[in-house]
Amino acid sequence: MKTSHALAFMLLTMATVTSLSVVRGDAQAPAGPDQMVAALKQNLAESQKRLRQYEWIETTAISLKGEEKSRKQQRVYYSADGKLTKLPIGEPQPQAAQSGGRGGGRLKKRIVENKKNEMQEYMERAGNLIQMYVPPPPTLIQEAKDKGNMLLRPQPQGPIRVEFQNVVQPSDLLALDVNTNAALLSAINVATYLDKKEDAVTLAVQFGTLTDGTSYTAQTTLEAKAKNIRVVVQNSGHRPLAQ
Fold first, then answer.
1. CA 183, CA 54: separation in Å to the nearest integer?
2. Model confidence pLDDT, tens digit, residues 4-33
3. Separation between Cα atoms, residue 14 and residue 122, nearest integer Å
4. How far apart are CA 231 and CA 220, in angstroms?
5. Which of 1, 105, 199, 218 could link 208 by a cystine bridge, Cβ 3.0 to 4.6 Å?
6. pTM to 2 decimals?
7. Rounded CA separation 210/23 (Å)
8. Which residues are within 8 A (CB) of 225 and not within 5 positions of it... i.e. 6 or more apart?
Protein backbone atom coordinates (compact mmCIF):
# COMPACT_ATOMS: atom_id res chain seq x y z
CA MET A 1 0.00 0.00 0.00
CA LYS A 2 1.40 3.35 -1.01
CA THR A 3 0.77 6.15 1.48
CA SER A 4 0.79 9.92 0.97
CA HIS A 5 1.56 12.16 3.94
CA ALA A 6 2.45 15.54 2.44
CA LEU A 7 0.87 17.47 5.29
CA ALA A 8 2.59 15.28 7.85
CA PHE A 9 5.90 16.01 6.10
CA MET A 10 5.23 19.72 6.44
CA LEU A 11 4.30 19.51 10.09
CA LEU A 12 7.36 17.49 10.97
CA THR A 13 9.98 19.31 8.95
CA MET A 14 8.73 22.81 9.75
CA ALA A 15 8.75 21.93 13.42
CA THR A 16 12.33 20.71 13.31
CA VAL A 17 14.36 22.06 10.42
CA THR A 18 13.30 25.68 10.76
CA SER A 19 13.26 26.08 14.49
CA LEU A 20 15.92 24.01 16.19
CA SER A 21 19.31 25.13 14.90
CA VAL A 22 21.31 26.67 17.71
CA VAL A 23 23.98 29.33 17.35
CA ARG A 24 27.34 28.57 18.84
CA GLY A 25 28.23 31.15 21.44
CA ASP A 26 30.88 32.04 24.00
CA ALA A 27 28.74 31.58 27.10
CA GLN A 28 30.21 29.92 30.16
CA ALA A 29 28.94 26.57 31.33
CA PRO A 30 25.67 27.00 33.26
CA ALA A 31 26.22 26.50 36.98
CA GLY A 32 22.82 25.06 37.86
CA PRO A 33 19.25 24.40 36.75
CA ASP A 34 18.22 28.07 36.67
CA GLN A 35 21.23 29.04 34.58
CA MET A 36 20.75 26.01 32.32
CA VAL A 37 17.12 26.89 31.63
CA ALA A 38 18.00 30.54 30.99
CA ALA A 39 20.78 29.58 28.58
CA LEU A 40 18.55 27.12 26.73
CA LYS A 41 15.77 29.68 26.40
CA GLN A 42 18.25 32.24 25.04
CA ASN A 43 19.69 29.79 22.51
CA LEU A 44 16.23 28.74 21.37
CA ALA A 45 15.27 32.39 20.92
CA GLU A 46 18.34 32.95 18.72
CA SER A 47 18.09 29.64 16.90
CA GLN A 48 16.77 30.77 13.53
CA LYS A 49 19.20 33.56 12.79
CA ARG A 50 22.16 31.75 11.26
CA LEU A 51 20.29 29.28 9.09
CA ARG A 52 18.69 32.17 7.22
CA GLN A 53 22.08 32.62 5.55
CA TYR A 54 22.02 29.10 4.10
CA GLU A 55 20.20 26.81 1.73
CA TRP A 56 20.23 23.03 2.02
CA ILE A 57 18.74 19.76 0.78
CA GLU A 58 15.99 18.07 2.75
CA THR A 59 15.42 14.35 2.12
CA THR A 60 12.24 12.80 3.52
CA ALA A 61 11.56 9.06 3.55
CA ILE A 62 8.47 7.28 4.83
CA SER A 63 8.48 3.60 5.75
CA LEU A 64 5.52 1.39 6.57
CA LYS A 65 6.13 -1.90 8.36
CA GLY A 66 9.84 -1.56 7.63
CA GLU A 67 9.38 -1.03 3.89
CA GLU A 68 10.16 2.36 2.38
CA LYS A 69 7.07 3.67 0.61
CA SER A 70 8.16 7.09 -0.57
CA ARG A 71 11.19 9.36 -0.72
CA LYS A 72 11.50 12.95 -1.88
CA GLN A 73 14.04 15.75 -1.85
CA GLN A 74 13.54 19.49 -1.61
CA ARG A 75 15.76 22.55 -1.78
CA VAL A 76 15.13 24.56 1.40
CA TYR A 77 15.93 28.19 2.17
CA TYR A 78 14.48 31.33 3.69
CA SER A 79 13.16 33.88 1.24
CA ALA A 80 13.71 37.62 1.54
CA ASP A 81 10.47 38.02 3.49
CA GLY A 82 11.63 35.46 6.06
CA LYS A 83 9.38 32.61 4.92
CA LEU A 84 10.70 29.09 4.65
CA THR A 85 10.71 28.01 1.00
CA LYS A 86 10.83 24.41 -0.22
CA LEU A 87 11.28 23.55 -3.88
CA PRO A 88 10.97 19.93 -5.10
CA ILE A 89 14.07 18.35 -6.63
CA GLY A 90 13.57 15.88 -9.46
CA GLU A 91 10.35 14.35 -10.71
CA PRO A 92 7.66 13.28 -8.24
CA GLN A 93 7.31 9.55 -7.77
CA PRO A 94 4.67 8.03 -10.04
CA GLN A 95 1.52 6.76 -8.34
CA ALA A 96 1.14 3.00 -8.17
CA ALA A 97 -1.12 1.75 -10.93
CA GLN A 98 -4.50 0.60 -9.73
CA SER A 99 -5.55 -2.89 -10.77
CA GLY A 100 -8.32 -3.14 -13.32
CA GLY A 101 -11.49 -5.13 -13.09
CA ARG A 102 -15.06 -4.26 -12.47
CA GLY A 103 -16.69 -4.24 -9.06
CA GLY A 104 -13.68 -5.92 -7.42
CA GLY A 105 -11.31 -3.29 -8.76
CA ARG A 106 -13.46 -0.42 -7.57
CA LEU A 107 -13.83 -2.00 -4.14
CA LYS A 108 -10.09 -2.52 -3.82
CA LYS A 109 -9.45 1.07 -4.87
CA ARG A 110 -11.95 2.33 -2.30
CA ILE A 111 -10.33 0.26 0.46
CA VAL A 112 -6.89 1.56 -0.47
CA GLU A 113 -8.14 5.15 -0.49
CA ASN A 114 -9.76 4.69 2.92
CA LYS A 115 -6.53 3.28 4.33
CA LYS A 116 -4.54 6.18 2.87
CA ASN A 117 -6.94 8.72 4.35
CA GLU A 118 -6.87 6.98 7.72
CA MET A 119 -3.07 6.91 7.74
CA GLN A 120 -2.80 10.54 6.67
CA GLU A 121 -5.20 11.64 9.39
CA TYR A 122 -3.18 9.67 11.94
CA MET A 123 0.09 11.23 10.82
CA GLU A 124 -1.41 14.70 10.92
CA ARG A 125 -2.47 14.10 14.51
CA ALA A 126 1.00 12.80 15.38
CA GLY A 127 2.59 15.82 13.69
CA ASN A 128 0.33 18.22 15.57
CA LEU A 129 1.22 16.50 18.85
CA ILE A 130 4.96 16.73 18.15
CA GLN A 131 4.59 20.44 17.39
CA MET A 132 3.64 20.93 21.03
CA TYR A 133 7.15 19.80 22.03
CA VAL A 134 9.41 20.89 19.18
CA PRO A 135 10.77 23.48 19.28
CA PRO A 136 10.68 23.20 23.08
CA PRO A 137 8.27 25.92 24.25
CA PRO A 138 10.11 28.12 26.79
CA THR A 139 6.97 28.56 28.88
CA LEU A 140 6.37 24.82 29.17
CA ILE A 141 10.04 24.22 29.98
CA GLN A 142 9.90 26.85 32.72
CA GLU A 143 6.64 25.44 34.08
CA ALA A 144 7.99 21.88 34.19
CA LYS A 145 11.10 23.10 35.96
CA ASP A 146 9.08 25.09 38.49
CA LYS A 147 6.94 22.01 39.27
CA GLY A 148 10.01 19.90 39.97
CA ASN A 149 9.69 17.87 36.77
CA MET A 150 13.20 18.66 35.55
CA LEU A 151 16.19 16.35 35.99
CA LEU A 152 19.82 16.82 34.98
CA ARG A 153 21.55 13.58 33.98
CA PRO A 154 25.26 13.65 33.05
CA GLN A 155 26.00 11.44 30.02
CA PRO A 156 29.14 9.30 29.51
CA GLN A 157 30.12 11.21 26.36
CA GLY A 158 30.19 14.57 28.16
CA PRO A 159 26.91 16.40 27.54
CA ILE A 160 24.18 16.68 30.14
CA ARG A 161 20.72 15.33 29.44
CA VAL A 162 18.00 17.66 30.66
CA GLU A 163 14.75 15.74 31.11
CA PHE A 164 11.33 17.32 31.49
CA GLN A 165 8.45 15.08 32.51
CA ASN A 166 4.71 15.74 32.29
CA VAL A 167 5.31 18.58 29.85
CA VAL A 168 2.18 18.39 27.70
CA GLN A 169 0.39 15.37 29.15
CA PRO A 170 0.95 12.91 32.02
CA SER A 171 3.94 10.56 31.76
CA ASP A 172 5.39 12.16 28.63
CA LEU A 173 9.09 12.99 28.37
CA LEU A 174 11.07 15.72 26.63
CA ALA A 175 14.84 15.17 26.80
CA LEU A 176 17.42 17.69 25.66
CA ASP A 177 21.08 16.70 25.33
CA VAL A 178 23.08 19.83 26.04
CA ASN A 179 26.71 20.72 25.45
CA THR A 180 27.33 22.40 28.79
CA ASN A 181 30.22 24.55 27.55
CA ALA A 182 27.74 26.86 25.84
CA ALA A 183 24.34 25.26 26.46
CA LEU A 184 24.09 24.04 22.87
CA LEU A 185 21.58 21.38 21.92
CA SER A 186 23.09 18.19 20.50
CA ALA A 187 19.92 16.07 20.51
CA ILE A 188 16.24 16.19 21.34
CA ASN A 189 14.09 13.18 22.17
CA VAL A 190 10.35 13.13 22.76
CA ALA A 191 8.32 10.20 24.09
CA THR A 192 4.60 10.83 24.10
CA TYR A 193 1.33 9.27 22.94
CA LEU A 194 -1.97 10.07 21.27
CA ASP A 195 -5.23 8.88 22.85
CA LYS A 196 -3.69 6.23 25.09
CA LYS A 197 -0.22 5.33 26.28
CA GLU A 198 -0.15 2.24 24.06
CA ASP A 199 -0.40 4.57 21.06
CA ALA A 200 3.19 5.75 21.46
CA VAL A 201 4.78 8.45 19.31
CA THR A 202 8.49 9.20 19.52
CA LEU A 203 10.72 11.84 17.96
CA ALA A 204 14.52 11.84 17.81
CA VAL A 205 16.44 14.86 16.54
CA GLN A 206 20.20 14.78 15.98
CA PHE A 207 22.21 17.95 15.37
CA GLY A 208 25.23 18.66 13.20
CA THR A 209 27.59 21.64 13.09
CA LEU A 210 28.66 23.66 10.04
CA THR A 211 32.18 24.97 9.58
CA ASP A 212 31.26 28.39 10.98
CA GLY A 213 29.87 26.83 14.16
CA THR A 214 26.21 26.96 13.19
CA SER A 215 24.28 23.99 14.60
CA TYR A 216 21.49 22.47 12.51
CA THR A 217 19.13 19.51 12.57
CA ALA A 218 20.98 16.76 10.74
CA GLN A 219 18.36 14.04 11.11
CA THR A 220 14.84 13.85 12.49
CA THR A 221 13.05 10.55 13.03
CA LEU A 222 9.36 10.28 13.86
CA GLU A 223 8.00 6.86 14.78
CA ALA A 224 4.39 5.86 15.34
CA LYS A 225 4.83 2.28 16.47
CA ALA A 226 1.12 1.49 16.73
CA LYS A 227 0.85 2.05 12.97
CA ASN A 228 4.36 0.81 12.10
CA ILE A 229 5.18 4.16 10.48
CA ARG A 230 8.63 5.71 10.43
CA VAL A 231 9.40 9.12 8.92
CA VAL A 232 13.05 10.17 8.54
CA VAL A 233 14.05 13.70 7.50
CA GLN A 234 17.71 14.38 6.72
CA ASN A 235 19.26 17.79 6.02
CA SER A 236 22.55 18.05 4.18
CA GLY A 237 24.52 20.02 1.61
CA HIS A 238 24.33 23.35 3.41
CA ARG A 239 25.83 26.24 1.48
CA PRO A 240 25.63 30.02 1.72
CA LEU A 241 22.47 31.39 0.21
CA ALA A 242 23.12 33.54 -2.87
CA GLN A 243 22.14 37.15 -2.28
1. 23
2. 332 233 223 333 333 334 444 444 455 566
3. 18
4. 8
5. 218
6. 0.72
7. 10
8. 200, 202
